[in-house]
């Protein structure tokens, strides 16, 4: 469906540092990401989620993917370095 | 309460107040998903009932065609009240579209932020332990009436700044308004009483403000202007209405599940750290809330010819049981890790109180399990369910020891 982000199901690329972002337009403040991985996300007073790390530490990559897989708005994605 | 006529065909004559639907809507949704998947009825106006995850979430996002100006599943109808206060702005933000929705929601959200909700934990825990003190030393209780029903109303009353000793009255008003909505007289009387009460409370808070939501709304300014009293009245009423039946139903359904699934109960007793994940699965499987939308112009959606003014029931509970969105959806799996459920809705109307509801559900289950780690449904007594706008058990007899 149109709302879905294909990058939401990306596999971890071997050895490449993982970067993630929250699409502020899509985020509706469900706060599932914060509930699952408070080490990676924060949520402001209005529910807007944001990523609080530049690069996801390798030991938290599984948690990042879990947050991606549980966002009801498909608002979290892995950032690709490709243009 | 008027009885509903038997349903002839669920695809073309569905009725969300039919006893079969109230007790076990799951098999009906399965049937509709396979045959339909968007059902229609002419009962209480022309209404559509989507059952697939993608249909429900796409409609929730299409605010241009599906307006929130009428969110009641059972419409109020023509029998308007001449007695109670006028509700000229309806129930913002849940019952409003942008722009009214946008700024009224922004006024409410900080009261239900993660940080703020943490500050309500001690109160919630204290409400739960006090209730448990009243019956945990015995051997049986109605977990819906004596526990689930009592918790959210007390917390939301405190947040709003209205007396918690009015809790039983609040609960009755909300039940009359939502659950017994087919009884127009009962609903109108409850709506009038609730709004009249809030008009009085607004006067009180205007003259002696406290540190509560109602006082803050009365002092708020938007674009340099105070907020219209009619808007505040609708907002206060909706915070109470949305904050009572819904979470109570989620707590009750979760306790029903644990009372009938001893393995899951044992899992949570042995692994309390699983609770955060478990409540998401319980919310998915037993989503209490269905909201309505009104079609703004004639459109064909999913092959269905929808007319302007038709209602669509945002069937979030059925979306959460869609096998295309969830593996083995009718199995409650407290270990489920991929769970993109929409129990709190989808899009701009995501439940503003979802952080509060999650906290209340988690604390209520934690405290119950701590005091009563083993309990089962009492099959010798009747368990009853309410449905329609909000589904959950209304009597839940359980035995322990």
Helix-and-strand structural type of chain B? alpha+beta
Please count the helical segments of chain A.
2
Largest two-chain interface:
A-B, 20 and 27 residues
CATH architecture verdict of chain B: Orthogonal Bundle
The domain count of chain A comes to: 1
Please, how many domains of chain B? 1
Order of helix and strand elements from N to C terminus of chain B: HHEEHEHHHEHHHHEEHHHEEEEHHEEEE
Gross morphology of chain B? globular
Please count the beta strands of chain A (DSSP E, at least 2 residues each).
Answer: 4
Low-confidence segments of chain B: none
CATH homologous superfamily classification of chain B: Cytochrome P450
Keywords:
heterodimer, A: 83 residues, alpha+beta, Alpha-Beta Plaits, two-stranded antiparallel ribbon, two-stranded antiparallel sheet, B: 401 residues, Cytochrome p450, three-stranded antiparallel β-sheet, 45% helix
Q: What does this entry look like structurally?
A:
The complex is a heterodimer of chains A (83) and B (401). Helix content of chain A is 18%, strand content 14%. Chain A has 83 residues and is an alpha+beta fold. Chain A has one domain (18-78): Alpha-Beta Plaits. Chain A has a two-stranded antiparallel ribbon. In chain A, strands 2-3 form a two-stranded antiparallel ribbon. In chain A, β2 and β3 (49-51) form a beta hairpin. The radius of gyration of chain A is 12 Å and the shape is globular. Chain A starts with 19 loop residues before the first strand and ends in a 5-residue tail after the last strand. The model of chain A is unreliable at 5-10 (pLDDT under 50). The relative contact order of chain B is 0.18. Chain B starts with 18 loop residues before the first helix and ends with a strand. Chain B has a single domain (19-399), classed as Orthogonal Bundle (Cytochrome p450), CATH 1.10.630.10. In chain B, the strands form 5 sheets. A 5-stranded mixed β-sheet of chain B has the order 1-2-10-7-3, with helices on one face. Helices cover 45% and strands 10% of the residues of chain B. Chain B has helices spanning 19-23, 25-35, 53-61, 100-108, 114-119, 121-133, 151-160, 167-178, 184-207, 213-219, 229-260, 262-270, 275-285, 316-319, 354-371; strands at 39-41, 47-49, 66-67, 140-142, 221-222, 225-226, 291-295, 299-301, 304-306, 311-314, 376-377, 384-386, 392-395, 397-399. Chain B has 401 residues and is an alpha+beta fold. Chain A binds chain B through residues 1, 3, 28-32, 34-35, 43-47, 66, 69-73, and chain B through 54, 57-58, 61, 106, 109-110, 113-116, 276, 280, 337-342, 344, 346-348, 350, 354-355, 358.
